[in-house]
Every structure is written in structure tokens, then in C-alpha cells.
């Protein structure tokens, strides 16, 4: 890991480069003919960005970290740095497409590669210094959305692998994971393990595997219109002609959402309730509620009734996901489950957007919710609790450690 001194130098270097780019951009808006029509907006926006970037220098001269103003500045600069990068990358990508069409792919690749690590100074100097658990959860939720969406700026109008990686959120997810690894380490959390817990029983693991396979297949390919057809009517056709896009979107959801919810937020909740007798119960329930709630943003692109149904399903599924992670101790199991679940659903439906649900959809939701909750209750109770307790001790999140 880089020392704090080097991180500060990196941060200072980014500030200097950003200010130079803003000055150059302002000049171009007045000198370059295709941009002169937008110079009025540039005169307003660019000076504001210049000041916001300049304010980032405050992170280099903190002397009293206990003061409320300094603590507020950590929140402010975390958001400020992220939004300034968002604006400058938008500006840079636009200029690249105007001035250098022949080499645009190469330059956008360089932009994308640097985008993966550009938030490291912000993570070290601002975000990781937020100590309030509620503040940590809120910033994680906000930044996951913003960071994953940043690479969408760095795309071309023609089809390319870079465009697919950026528009599906793959590169943004990598950036979020790299940044949050630093933050979670500074918040004193261990990185999630990929190996299955040594205490997990083979019979329970087999049951989990069967449940995952059945859930993925039923969700994607069951074509029932009523309860009587639930086990008899299937459609295994792939409807989309562009599978690559949906495969990458499913991978992005499996990686980013599980990293956010089952590692970052669940870990914070487990630590918050560490001294409670119902530590696991409270953490799992709240994690499910948060996971369901973040799907409310889908109401922008699909009917509200479909979004409500999706939120309820995500709440119950989130509890099941948490139970699987706590028992298996393997983050890899959750990633594969979530990714395959979404990939198959997207490929079968040919879309990521839900339509207005019918009466049977609500009946089916009631059944699946009960199944998810019963499955989670089974994993979190009885003899399985000792396995979960062992895993929590390994992660230093147990109330008995």
C-alpha cells in the first residue's frame, strides 16, 4: 500500500491536472468553432468546477480531525471529488471524440484504465474517514450507483468491447470494488473469502446447490400462467439476439450488488449489532430491506407496480443471499448465484425491464417469498448457527470474539 505522503502527492497531482484541463477547456470553448455555441454555459459551469476542485486541497491540510467541520468535509469531499471526476471525464470524452476520431479508441481505453484507480486518493483521504455506520452505508449506496455509471461516459457510438464493458457497468464495478476495498480496510473489515467454510456440512451445501439451481431455472424458464401450471409449463428458449450485453449485465449485478450488499453493508450491520443477542437476525433483515429498497430506482424505467413486486422479491431474496453467505463463508457462491440468476432471466426475457404484473405474478411472489424466508430461516437456525458463529469469528464480527 502507498504511504499517506504518496497518496497526498497523488491527490495534489490530480488537482493540478484537473485545473489545467479546466483552463484549457475554457479556452477551447472560445477558440474552437464547434464549441463556441456552448461557451455561455461553459463560462458558468467551468469556473464553478474550478472552485470545487480547488476546495479539494483542504484534505491536504487537516489538523483537527475531531472537529465537526472537518468531519463534514470528509462527506463533502467524497461526493465533490466523485462528481468533479464525473464532469471532467464527460468533458474529456467529448473533446476526444471531436478532436481525435482516428485514435479515439486508444484514448478512451487509457481513460477507462485510469478510471479504475482514480478514486484511490479520495478513498484514503476522505471516504475512509467517515466513521458513522449510517454515513458509511449511505455513502456506499450512493457511490456504488455513481461509480458504476461513470464509465458509461467513456463510450463510442460504434460497437466495441470497450463500449459493452462500460455501458454494462463492468468497468464501473471494478472501480467501485477497488475503491471500497481501501475504504473497508480502513474501517477495519476483512476482505470476503472465496473458499467455503471448513465447518460447513456437505449435506447442507448440497441442499444449497439444489436450491440455487432450481431457483435460477424456475425464475428464468417457468412459463406458468396459474398455480396449476407451475411445475408443468416451461419455455427454455433464449429470446434475445444480443446475448453478450445481457451476460455482462448479469455479471455486473452479481459482482457489484453482492459486493455492496453481502460484503460491505452486511459487514457494517453485523458490526453495528455485534453486542446484540439477535445480531445475525437484525443484520440480515436490514440488509434485505436495504437491498429491496434500492430497487425503487427501477421505477424510472418500468411501471411502479412492477417495481414494488421487484422490491418485495429482492427483500426476500436478499435475506436468502445473506443466509447463504453467512453459512458457506464463501463470497464466490453468492456472486455465481446472483450472476447466473440475472443472466438467465435477462436472456430468457430479452430485457432487463419488467412489465405490469398480472394477478398470478403476485400469487407467485407470495409463494417465492415464503420459500426464500423458510430457506433462510433453515440456514440461520439449529446446528447451522454454530457454522455461522465460526465464520463470524474468522471475520472478527462475532459478539463472542
Automatic annotation (TrEMBL):
**MF annotations from Gene Ontology:** endopeptidase activity
Question: What GO terms describe the biological role, i.e. biological process, of this protein?
Answer: CAAX-box protein maturation
**InterPro entries in UniProt:** Rce1/LyrA-like_dom (IPR003675)
Which keywords does this chain's UniProt record carry? Membrane, Transmembrane, Transmembrane helix
Where are the bilayer-spanning segments? 12-30, 42-60, 81-99, 105-125, 137-158, 164-183, 204-221, 280-301, 307-328, 335-356, 362-380
CAAX prenyl protease 2/Lysostaphin resistance protein A-like domain mapped to chain residues: 245-343
Q: Which family does it belong to?
A: Belongs to the UPF0177 family.
Protein name (record):
CAAX prenyl protease 2/Lysostaphin resistance protein A-like domain-containing protein
